[in-house]
Design brief:
This protein is α+β, with helices and mostly antiparallel strands. Helices cover about 45% and strands about 20% of the residues. It has helices spanning about 5-15, 100-110, 135-145, 150-170, 175-180, 185-200, 205-215, 215-230, 230-250, 255-260, 265-280, 280-290; strands spanning about 25-30, 35-40, 45-50, 50-55, 60-65, 70, 75-85, 90-95, 125-130. The strands form 2 sheets. A 5-stranded antiparallel sheet has the order 1-8-3-6-9. β4 (about 50-55) and β5 form a beta hairpin. The two termini are about 20 Å apart. Keywords: DNA-binding, Transcription, Transcription regulation.
């Protein structure tokens, strides 16, 4: 993999909003180390060409740097920060949104024996590896299309498929493959994750979520912990606090109302847990957040 060319392509085509003319392809360029910020990871491949970034998921901390990639196979609440970035040497990253349907299509088209059978425990929803040359070369060829817009429509889908195939046959194949398997443990956990995200303000019983996923309570709890590094209740709390912070950016004078909207019955508990998560009480943080706009991009790029 030619890291110099990858850096040049990323630096030349970076935009403030990380989007590109190629659907699902993202580019980040950050010129300073950043404070930890919370967001959702998205389901995404993120490859770093320069600099380094740190992601915290529950009690796990992942760091990926130049020549390494991270895969998030479930949309998870994470806290991230760039640890190596400056004006002279900005952090440069490539992102590709991963769609389960595209992974499933490749799995169906693979010939018998092309993919080894899945084995071992349920993979984590977030993994990091060194990027092999064939993966990096495919990413470079995809980015080259930004200089040849007329080729994007025909060639970009082909190169995206190649990138997915490199992931499916690479070191982190298990995490990526389970993204496309409708009956995998990871997909069952992802179903519960979506339910919690959609109903984060509602109380729930773990038994009901286990029934939703078709697992026993013990198997569900074990697999949920393996994928998300959190218990279901801890996961719900992360979502509630993130949503509360977003609401406070536009409703800074209604701390009590925001707490109730995200599911807290006790204002004191809301304030205590919010401060523990973000380092400041809701009212103080709300003043600082005024005017903040939610970023609809994966956090890991």
């Amino acid at each position: 993999m030619d890291l110099d060319e990858l850096r040049a392509l990323l630096a030349r085509h970076a935009r403030p909003d990380v989007s590109t003319p190629i659907e699902g392809v993202l580019i980040s360029k950050v010129e300073q180390q950043t404070a930890p910020t919370t967001s959702m990871s998205g389901t995404v491949l993120a490859l770093i060409a320069q600099g380094a970034k740190q992601m915290a998921l529950g009690d796990r901390v992942y760091e990926y740097r130049a020549g390494q990639y991270l895969v998030a196979s479930v949309d998870l609440p994470v806290t991230g920060r760039f640890t190596q970035a400056s004006a002279g040497a900005p952090a440069l990253g490539f992102g590709l949104v991963l769609h389960p349907a595209m992974v499933a299509e490749l799995l169906l088209q693979a010939a018998p024996g092309d993919l080894p059978p899945l084995a071992g425990p349920t993979p984590s929803g977030m993994v990091v590896s060194d990027a092999p040359d064939d993966l990096g070369d495919a990413v470079i060829r995809l980015l080259r299309l930004l200089d040849k817009p007329r080729d994007v429509t025909v060639l970009a889908p082909l190169i995206k498929r190649e990138i997915l195939w490199r992931l499916l046959t690479g070191e982190q194949a298990a995490a990526v493959r389970q993204l496309g398997l409708a009956d995998s443990s990871l997909s069952h956990v992802a179903r519960a994750v979506r339910w919690i995200r959609d109903h984060y303000a509602q109380p729930f019983r773990v038994e009901d979520l286990a029934r939703l996923t078709g697992m026993s309570v013990s198997a569900f709890y074990r697999n949920f912990q393996a994928v998300t590094a959190m218990s279901p209740i801890q996961f719900q709390k992360q979502i509630r606090l993130q949503e509360a912070r977003l609401l406070l950016a536009t409703h800074p004078n209604d701390v009590t109302g925001v707490g109730i909207r995200v599911g807290y019955e006790s204002p004191s508990q809301f304030s205590r847990e919010y401060r523990r998560q973000f380092g400041a009480p809701p009212s103080q943080d709300a003043t600082r957040l005024r005017g903040t706009i939610r970023a609809e991009v994966p956090a890991v790029v």
